[in-house]
Write a structure and sequence with these properties.
- Helix content is about 40%, strand content about 15%.
- The strands form 4 sheets. Strands 2-1-3-4-5-10 form a 6-stranded parallel beta sheet, sandwiched between helices. A two-stranded parallel sheet has the order 6-9. The chain has a two-stranded parallel ribbon with strand order 7-12.
- The relative contact order is 0.16.
- Bound molecules: NADP nicotinamide-adenine-dinucleotide phosphate (NAP).
Length: about 300
């Protein structure tokens, strides 16, 4: 197989950073951050894709500040909805495969059953609405695509719940944590590695007879579920805290006691069966992923 050219966006984000490493065994990775390609600039995006002429475009870049999106809907829309549409059109033109990431926030969060890929979407906030519009633009383009919806992403760098909790647990004696939103914390490294495994299968004998049936949306999260409060408890149990200070008291609260500009879904559970049935992949349980992430970041 000839060496593939892979255009990676958001290369300094949580998932993008990990993808840079995990995709490198699949081909030559052109890792772009927002300075190298501003997704809000449609012409610049088209120009860059044509210049690199990739076989695969992997797009973890997104406007991810969920609360800020409520007051900046145009900026969020440009990056999360318009840009994926442009990447998809360019992918169509050059015959590239587009790999994109989306979110549990496309769902309303009603009920307690894990959402399946074909369940109806009804986002509660601007971020979710723009991410859904991005999915739809990709689907409408007709390009070969894989859209991985994930949830509650964290890692050893960037801005995420794990790092915020580790800091606050050292600074404050008590933390109030939302306990009625349920989902799966997902380690960005597991997402990146699963993406690379999917891509390595795409051209493998296992799937080369009828690849057309593969394109579409897949849910991809670490296995299991918890609340933000449960996630915080697990972080506290695993984290190496200073033994001289008492552990912070983690007080469970309902979402109604923690008002934010953007409303969040209560049920963020995503059913991952389609990923397993199609690619034979199931990500590890969120607790073991968290333990490995903390171990890696303490090394
Ligand atoms: N984080 C979560 O909890 C979560 C949950 C569900 C789904 N997701 C989805 O998973 C994917 C990866 O998320 P993540 O957590 O890795 O995000 P992240 O750490 O916030 O990284 C986002 C990246 O997007 C880039 N970006 C933002 N605006 C840009 C622009 N105008 N032009 C070019 N690049 C731009 C940022 O670049 P700069 O740093 O250079 O600005 C950053 O590298 C996203 O699609 C997100 O919607 C995330």
């Amino acid at each position: 197989m000839s060496r593939q050219r892979i255009l990676l966006t958001g290369a300094s984000g949580q998932v993008g950073w990990e993808l840079r490493r995990s995709l490198s065994c699949l081909g030559e990775v052109f890792a772009l951050d927002s300075g190298a390609m501003n997704l809000a600039d449609a012409d610049a995006v088209s120009r860059k894709v044509r210049e690199i002429a990739p076989h695969i475009i992997v797009n973890p870049a997104a406007y991810t500040t969920v609360d800020k999106a409520e007051s900046e809907p145009e900026r969020a829309h440009a990056v999360n909805a318009s840009a994926p549409g442009i990447l998809a059109e360019e992918a169509c033109t050059i015959g590239a495969l587009l790999v994109h990431y989306s979110t549990d926030y496309v769902f309303s969060g009603s009920g307690a059953t894990p959402w399946r890929e074909d369940d109806g979407c009804d986002p509660l906030n601007v971020y979710g609405a723009t991410k859904l519009a991005g999915e739809r633009a990709i689907q409408a383009s007709g390009c070969r695509h894989l859209i991985f919806r994930t949830s509650w992403v964290y890692g050893a760098r960037g801005s995420n719940f794990l790092l915020t909790m580790r800091r606050l647990m050292r600074e404050r004696p008590e933390l109030k944590i939302v306990a009625d939103q349920v989902g799966a914390p997902t380690w960005c490294r597991d997402l990146a590695e699963a993406t690379a495994q999917v891509l390595s299968q795409i051209n493998s004998p296992r799937h080369d007879t009828d690849q057309g049936t593969l394109w579409g949306v897949y849910h991809m999260t670490n296995a299991g579920e918890t609340s933000w409060h449960g996630f915080a408890q697990a972080i506290q149990a695993l984290d190496e805290l200073d033994e001289t200070s008492a552990p912070a008291h983690l007080l469970p609260i309902p979402s109604t006691d923690y008002p934010t500009p953007a409303k969040r879904p209560l049920n963020s559970r995503l059913n991952n069966d389609k990923l397993e049935q199609t690619f034979g992949l199931r990500l590890q349980d969120w607790r073991s992923a968290l333990a490995l992430c903390l171990e890696a970041s303490n090394r």
